[in-house]
Write a structure and sequence with these properties.
The protein is an alpha/beta fold. It has twelve helices and twelve strands. The protein has helices at residues 46-58, 77-85, 93-101, 105-110, 128-138, 152-159, 164-176, 197-207, 233-243, 308-313, 318-329, 350-353, and strands at 13-17, 63-67, 118-123, 142-146, 183-188, 210-215, 246-248, 258-263, 270-274, 287-290, 295-297, 306-307. It has a twelve-stranded mixed β-sheet with strand order 7-8-9-6-5-4-3-2-1-10-11-12. A hairpin with a 6-residue loop joins β8 and β9 (270-274). The protein starts with 12 loop residues before the first strand and ends with a helix. The structure holds S-adenosylmethionine (SAM).
Length: 355
């Protein structure tokens, strides 16, 4: 019943990209002008996304994160969120499966009840303040907002858009409409923003958010990534510790991507460090991704994709679709190969894959 890969990892976390379009041009993601966009007819419809997400949930997926590109550019995203939020009650196919398998009601009660537990969104925050209330009303649980600089000019240099104020308002809106805990993603790149590490830590304390510092990964469409441009987890930890001593929250990361720290002096906020390059966490990976055009990716760095869209559009039955998904999960890579001499970057950048 659960999705388990060939390395005995259970897959619980699905990231769904809703569009490859983005209104920011972050230099570490989509630096070069207008990229070729995926043809509209290849993008999964809301009905298709709902259908496959329901199947994923029936197979044990507990968390769905909507991402992109910029997911808020997908028109009527609130409608999709409303559809997916229904999966938090119960997988609609659950009763059908139970009744067809046995009429013994005691046995039915003992079966696991597959439900979505967490519906989240990652956004650049540009239009979020005016959308937050409707997103919450539609059934969104929480939000992660990207923010790579607290300085207006630098923010503009990094993203190509003068929108720091909108993003700060997004954080307030997320709190106001209880889309919490609010997480902030900050990609650190040497020479660009590592001098703001302590400022961000202070920001986390003052605004009571969960800061997530993320190591720069070779997923930029400009292929400018170099090992020297990474600001390592160790450096991030040490820099914050000198000013605001940190205490590890839990000894194990579990399936989380981040090591999580609290402030030793009891201040509000949390620091998370996501270090896919220098402290690889593939052994505990529970994630799988679905691109906007319906390709399953078993790893951010996969060089192959698996065409779920054609399976669904080709008229496969539900059982055949389940079989396809299970067979793809079995192909999930044991680990990424960023640190291997023969590493070759994924065919698509983060904005296409869905971060
Ligand atoms: N548009 C949304 C946003 O800005 O959050 C969602 C998509 S974005 C691709 C998701 C996350 O991926 C962002 O937090 C972004 O900073 C991160 N990201 C993009 N390119 C990256 C890279 N090369 N290395 C590390 N993180 C990256």
């Amino acid at each position: 019943m659960l999705l388990r890969d060939a390395h005995n990892r259970i897959i619980r976390d699905l990231r769904v990209s809703l569009t490859d379009r983005c209104n920011f041009r972050c230099f570490y993601c989509l630096p070069n002008g207008e990229p070729p966009l995926t043809r509209k007819d290849t993008i999964l419809t809301f009905e298709e996304i709902e259908y496959v997400c329901e199947i994923f949930v029936s197979l044990g997926i507990e968390k769905i994160r909507l991402t992109g590109g910029e997911p808020l550019l997908r028109r009527d995203i609130e409608v999709l969120i409303g559809k997916l939020a229904r999966l938090k009650v119960q997988s609609p196919m659950f009763n059908v499966q139970c009744h067809s398998e046995t009429s013994n009601s005691k046995f039915q009660n003992e079966k696991p009840n597959p439900k979505l537990k967490d519906l989240a969104l990652t956004t650049n925050g540009h239009t979020f303040p005016r959308r937050a209330e409707n997103l919450k009303r539609a059934g969104l649980d929480r939000v992660t907002i990207s923010l790579d600089s607290l300085q207006r000019e630098r923010f503009k240099e990094i993203t190509g858009v003068d929108a720091l104020e909108n993003v700060l308002q997004s954080i307030e809106a997320a709190k106001r409409f209880d889309l919490t805990p609010v997480k902030i993603n900050c990609v650190l790149v040497r020479g660009r923003n590592e001098d703001e590490i302590v400022d961000f830590a202070r920001f986390a304390r003052e605004t009571d958010v969960k800061m997530r510092f993320i190591e720069f990964m070779p997923l930029d469409s400009g292929h400018d990534w170099t090992r020297e441009s990474i600001v390592s987890a160790r450096e991030i930890r040490e820099t914050i510790n000198e000013v605001y001593p940190l205490r590890l929250k839990e000894k194990s990361r579990g399936a989380e991507t981040a090591w999580r720290y609290e402030f030793a002096d009891g201040a509000a906020g949390e620091i998370g460090i996501v270090a896919p390059v220098t402290e690889m966490f593939c052994g505990a990976c529970s994630r799988i991704r679905l691109t906007a055009d319906g390709q399953i990716r078993t790893c951010l760095f996969s060089t192959v994709e698996h065409n779920l869209r054609d399976v669904v559009r080709g008229g496969a039955s539900r059982a055949e679709t389940v079989e396809f998904i299970e067979s793809v999960v079995l192909k999930k890579e044991a680990r990424h190969s960023i640190n291997d001499a023969e590493f070759s970057p994924a065919s698509r950048s983060m904005s296409f894959i869905g971060g």
